[in-house]
Amino acid sequence: MSVFCDNVMVNVLVCIKQVVDVNQLRVSNGALQEAMQRAPRKISEFDLNALEEAVRLKEKHGGKVTILSVGSDVKTMLVREALAMGADEAYVVSDPAMEGSDGLAIAMVLAEAARKIKGWDIILCGEASSDDAGYQIGPRLAKELGIPFLAYVTRLELKSGKVLVERTLEDFVETYEVSLPVLFTVGLEINTPRIPSLLMIKASSKKPITSWSLKDLGITVKPALRTVEMKVVKSERKNVVIEGNPEEVAEKLLTSLLKEGVIRG
């Protein structure tokens, strides 16, 4: 763990998931599962926010940013893309045995890898992945590691060896002071991820990537959940046109929404 003084310095571990790029998903004959296997991968959007925040902390306070990515087939090219944003090093656990792993299994692998990496003060995760959107990895990983956890963080500030945290909920903002080590999950609200420059992309090619298998970690995974089927749900718009002056349109719209059960009277 880093040494703290007035000029706080922290090491941040960022968990990165590689997900299906849904914008390039092409489904034919309802074969969604096959289409997802063929589709290109990318880094989950929320994880880019987590990485951006980690790099900003390093730029302001010093320390190191480490990437950790696990999965059945982790693509090195995407890890390099994450390194280009300003991370210093990456650890990858890529093992075919993780195919179909659920949130609990993934969290157990992340926890074992985090223990092996050591030296981190803060773990940052996206609040959910842009494919499964399970919202499970952050809290499950914190539980596995036995460290404090806060979700939906929208602002981080380091002060005298602690972290001042804000998270914005529906109608109010909560502020916490948290000791280290700690795990936070963040969403799109916290920042706008940078686009790496050509120089940063070139520099990423020289940054170290350490690859492990489950055997290297000394663990096996046994998912508690199994995906039985995935299918596309088709929806059709009703194409209802409401006509009249503004007052009439508002009245008709309100009546329609009440009738459809969208709102309650």
Essential attributes:
265 residues; alpha/beta; nine-stranded mixed sheet
Residues in β-strands, percent: 15-25%
For the largest beta-sheet, the strand count, sense and barrel status come to: 9 strands, mixed
Mean pLDDT: 90
The gyration radius over C-alpha positions equals 22 Å
- Supply the helix-strand structural class: alpha/beta
Note the gap between the termini: 57 Å
Output the helix-strand order.
Answer: EEHEHEHEHEHEEEEHEHH
DSSP strand count = 11
Assign a percent range to the helix content. Answer: 25-40%
Strand order of the largest sheet: 9-8-7-10-6-1-4-5-11
Uncertain parts = 1-6
Silhouette: globular
Secondary structure tally, helices: 8
Describe this structure in words.
There is one protein chain. The chain has 265 residues and is of the alpha/beta class. The protein is 31% helix and 25% strand. It is built from 8 helices and 11 strands. The protein has helices at residues 32-38, 45-61, 76-84, 103-117, 137-145, 198-204, 214-217, 246-260; strands spanning 10-15, 18-20, 41-43, 63-71, 89-94, 122-126, 149-159, 162-168, 173-179, 182-186, 209-212. The strands form 2 sheets. It has a 9-stranded mixed β-sheet with strand order 9-8-7-10-6-1-4-5-11, with helices on both faces. The chain has a two-stranded antiparallel ribbon with strand order 2-3. It is globular, with a radius of gyration of 22 Å. The N and C termini lie far apart (57 Å).
